[in-house]
Design brief:
- The two termini are 38 Å apart.
- The protein is 46% helix and 15% strand.
- By secondary structure, it is of the alpha/beta class.
Length: 340
């Protein structure tokens, strides 16, 4: 019998297909408004998996269109009451539930101060949706498993769609059109080698870079949530600093190396870590002979991380069960986390 997490992760391609077919007027209107009056600054507001999706959106905006983006430490607003200048700001909040006060309060504050506010949210009846000027629905459907999967992939897709609409990015729009098929392919790939390597693991480093760093961050969270593995995510560049001291014989590392400018360096890092004795799981496309795990590719390099996390989710759900855990009910966690 499949877990809810498995069912929800497996439904992501259909949910993304539904999202891409909906809300055409919403995206077009917001894109036109941003082109007519460009923001002076852009800030993202999110927690947990949604913050990882925000990181991907930010990197996409910066890499493709040179628009600098800041991730907001929400306590600046909720605890310190910092007088942040909101006039001309674009504030983008991402959330599945839209019910955490530390997202809702900054959005309300920024909107009152003259910012344009956008919520990428799954629950359209949520406080976050009600306080935002523009709402972009995720269309992920109700999530019953505590560990977010399909809503994360839908948030990644919505972020990419938002960027495409704002900048009339035809290449990104075309790539998104075929994304559901690539996600379906990602669901069929055999990642059992990762389960075999990690069924007894206590810790792991998860490495990514560029567009793929947000996926490494999400993978590390899911290892902790569902498998009780102490997992830390690092950029392929920063891992060579302090974290390198932890690497010893048999130390497990999952390295995401999708296509793009960072790939060559990540493959080289995998070889170096293998030389140091680490047990490296290299996730890369089929044309990389050193790979341990195969990544599906999409129509555009910048969308490949979505296919990577699709394969990862199905593996980590199976790994959790192999380790004797219930992936639907991680200990001490709730579906909605309310913080200030």
């Amino acid at each position: 019998m499949n877990s809810l997490m498995h069912e929800e992760a497996r439904s992501a391609p259909a949910r993304v297909r539904e999202q891409l077919a909906a809300d055409v007027a919403r995206y077009a209107a917001l894109g036109a408004a941003l082109r007519a009056q460009a923001p002076s600054a852009v800030v993202t507001i999110a927690r947990g998996s949604s913050d990882h999706a925000a990181s991907y959106l930010a990197y996409l905006l910066m890499a493709r269109h040179g628009r600098l983006v800041t991730s907001l430490p929400m306590s600046l607003v909720t605890l310190h009451r910092a007088p942040i200048a909101a006039e001309g700001l674009l504030a983008i909040a991402l959330s599945q539930s839209g019910r955490s006060p530390d997202l809702v309060e900054p959005m309300g504050s920024f909107r009152a101060g003259g910012a344009r506010t956008v919520a990428l949210v799954n629950d359209l009846e949520s406080p976050l949706a009600s306080v935002a000027e523009h709402v972009l629905p995720l269309h992920a459907g109700a999530e019953r498993s505590v560990a977010a999967t399909k809503s994360y992939i839908c948030a990644l897709a919505a972020g990419a769609r938002f960027v495409a609409s704002w900048y009339q990015d035809a290449a990104l729009e075309e790539g998104l059109a075929s994304l559901p098929e690539a996600l379906e392919q990602a669901c069929t790939l055999d990642w059992s080698a990762a389960q075999e390597a990690l069924v007894g693991a206590e810790r792991i480093m998860v490495i990514g870079r560029g567009m793929g760093l947000a996926i490494a961050q999400e993978a590390a969270l899911k290892f902790k949530e569902t498998c009780s593995i102490q997992a830390e995510a690092f950029s392929g560049a920063e891992v060579k600093h302090g974290p390198m001291a932890l690497v010893h014989e048999g130390y497990p590392m999952l390295i995401f190396a999708p296509r793009g400018p960072a790939q060559a360096g990540l493959i080289a890092l995998a070889e170096e870590m293998r030389g140091r004795g680490a047990r490296v799981l290299l996730a890369a496309p089929a044309d990389v002979p050193q790979r341990t795990l195969t990544l599906a590719t999409t129509a555009l390099d910048d969308l490949d991380p979505l296919a990577a996390v699709q394969s990862f989710y199905l593996m980590v759900e199976s790994l959790a069960r192999a380790r004797g855990h219930d992936p639907d009910r991680p200990p001490h966690l709730n579906k909605v986390t309310k913080t200030l």
